[in-house]
Design brief:
Helix content is 54%, strand content 17%. It has 5 helices and 4 strands. The termini are far apart.
Length: 173
């Protein structure tokens, strides 16, 4: 098969295509740059307005006038939210300390989840070399009178070589 165009015409067509490709490519790069610049404008405005507020030493912060009633209502809401923490009989650190001190050698605890309430729950997760250490840990925690129930999933105790485990403790704390 032969080409019908002479070499000069073929070269001119190739040059025209190359010029169009460069033109379209440069226009795409310009549009992408403009979009990137427009995406940065909000961040620049925030930073710039933050510097203006810092540089102005005469700017004063005025708080809205509050009444005694608003202050009392806010204090009552805080008391309602903080009452469970303030009225507990034992410290969370004491309970978590006893959970950690009951741990037999060889057990590594990776995470603890603590939720106060009646009943409160503590979920202890970790790694043990065998099921015997997990069972010994469960037995040591069961002896503590602060915990109503100490449960270990049965699947963990059925595996002889150990591995990951979790213990769930419930009680009033």
């Amino acid at each position: 098969m032969s080409n019908l165009l002479p070499m000069e015409s073929l070269q001119a067509v190739r040059n025209a295509h190359r010029a169009r490709f460069v033109l379209v490519g440069s226009l795409i790069v310009i549009v992408c740059g403009a979009v990137a610049l427009l995406a940065l404008v909000p961040a620049y405005a925030i930073v710039r307005s933050g510097h203006a507020a810092i540089d102005d030493p005469l700017q004063t912060v005025s708080l809205p006038p509050s009444t005694d009633r608003d202050d009392v209502m806010r204090a009552q809401a805080l008391v309602r939210e903080l009452r469970p923490v303030a009225s507990s009989t034992t410290s969370a650190l004491q309970i978590l300390g006893s959970v950690l001190s009951a741990r037999p050698p060889g057990i590594t605890i990776s995470s603890m989840s603590f939720a106060r309430g009646d009943p409160g729950t503590i979920v202890v997760s970790g790694v043990a070399p065998s099921r015997d250490e997990v069972n010994a840990y469960r037995a040591a925690l069961s002896k503590d009178s602060r915990f109503k129930t100490v449960s270990v999933p049965i699947g963990i105790l059925s595996i002889p070589e150990g591995g990951r485990f979790s213990v769930t403790l419930t009680g009033t704390f």
